């Protein structure tokens, strides 16, 4: 009995000592930066393609029209797209869905150097990590994951007057939305 008590005390002492050594070791480790590739906005890269997106949202229908365009560096549009989405809870969610959709299409088109532009300052701030909105957490996770597929990427705010075409396409898509009868 005495031997088992001594053995138990010895095991506890070893565990406590090992735990304090582990804490010391962790504190001595350099702070590492995450390996996840995050969109960089301060210094836009040399870009081959500019993707602009916009969304129109109708609260009563909980629906959104999403639109995006692809342009070359001379600002010549070579592709435009729009879709409607049901069960969209806010305009911020709609803007996030539009950006995610355009990123997915840019990957499908095998575009490697891209600047994404949005007129949603909230969305761009959330992507940069300077704001947090729980409503779009999953969309932001998707955007960060998709951004790792590009060789060079920039995500930046764009004034609304620069998105006239995208705005028109998004509103047109929303006007064509037909709710699914229950």
Automatic annotation (TrEMBL):
InterPro entries: RNase_H-like_dom_plant, RNase_H-like_EbsB-rel, RNaseH_domain, RNaseH_sf. Residues 53-173 form the RNase H type-1 domain. It comes from Brassica cretica (Mustard). The keyword Signal applies. Residues 1-21 form the signal peptide. This is RNase H type-1 domain-containing protein. Keywords: Signal. It holds the Pfam family RVT_3.
